[in-house]
Amino acid sequence: MAPQAEFSKWQGLGNDYIIVATVELPFKLTPERSVAICDRHFGIGGDGILAWGPSRKADFKLEIHNPDGSCAEMCGNGIRMLARFLVDWGYAEGRRKLLIETDAGPMPVNVRRNGLITVNMGVARLGGPGIKGYAGVPGESEAVGAWLEAGMNEYQFTFVDMGNPHCVIESDDLDNLDIRLLGPEIENHALFPNRTNVEFMNILGPSEVEMRVWERGVGETSACGTGACAVAVAAHRAREMDSPITVHLPGGDLVVDVDQEMNVVMSGPAEEIYSGTMSDDLVKRIKEL
Question: Which residues of 95-104 are buried (b: 16+ CB within 10 A; e: fewer)?
Fold first, then answer.
């Protein structure tokens, strides 16, 4: 009998991920295998894979595999999903406050009884190695109101490092924005050595914004947790918006608090869709890749 490959499918504001335990998979997750698993016609289908396991630095470790085979340093929606999964499935042994290791550092998470999950996302930077020419020194080399060319036009943007890179552009017409054209051009722009996530935001009030997101390695999605945090940081820093900020995404709302030291806390939901076991045929096909 072939080894079992169990998984759980979750969504956060429509951003859907496949949760697997690395120690229980009968194969190693490679870029080719991640692509096959995320395929919505021949695999399970999802915006990515959340692979979790033991950690020497925290309670658990999270690896994020994108549907194009690349890996992300951090995923705000993903960490909420994983935290609630660990609590609901009993892996957290009754605890609701967890420390989860990511490639962007350890993240404290609180799974509240009302269904919301709060994540301390750490300190945001407005520069750093994710963008050329900006070291991220506060007030000196921050990419706030910088310019880039894409789609035969120039765009003013704010760069936000949330452990992963974000390019935030203000727009007052999100509905008619050609994100399928602009998203890939900006994601792969020469300014961003490791590519970037791209957010377009429209300010609605003193503490309220709406946004669309083009995720690096994924494409347009209904929600992005780190993207919502980046938008809140950009709005707070460049437009002096009041915090906490409610961020309206196509899939729903997230609430982001940004303090004067640029510490960021995000709150939002996560929900299980279904769980199952990969078929023997799928496991065999994946192992052959």
Answer: eeebebbbeb
Which member of 38, 75, 167, 229 is catalytic?
75
CA 122, 127, 131: angle at the middle one, nearest 5?
120
Determine if the pTM surpasses 0.85. yes
- The catalytically annotated residue of 38, 167, 224, 229 is 224
Catalytic site includes residue 75: yes
Question: Would you call 167 a catalytic residue per the annotation?
Answer: no
Which domains are seen in the chain, by residue range?
6-116+271-287 (3.10.310.10), 123-268 (3.10.310.10)
Indicate the pairing of strand 144-150 with strand 117-123. Answer: unpaired
Give the pLDDT score at 3: 55
Q: pLDDT-derived band of residue 140, with 50, 70 and 90 as boundaries?
A: confident
Query: CA 52: distance to chain centroid?
Result: 16
- Give 149's strand partners: 154
Strands (E), the chain: 6-12, 15-21, 49-53, 60-65, 71-72, 97-102, 105-111, 117-123, 144-150, 153-161, 165-170, 197-205, 208-215, 219-221, 245-249, 252-258, 263-268, 271-277
**Per-residue tokens: 145:** 């109101």
Query: What are the phi and psi torsion angles at 186 (to 5°)?
Result: -75, -40
Could you read off the pLDDT of 21-65 as tens digits, one per residue? 999 999 999 999 999 999 999 999 999 999 999 999 999 999 999
Per residue in 99-128, pLDDT (tens digit) is 999 999 999 999 999 989 999 999 999 999
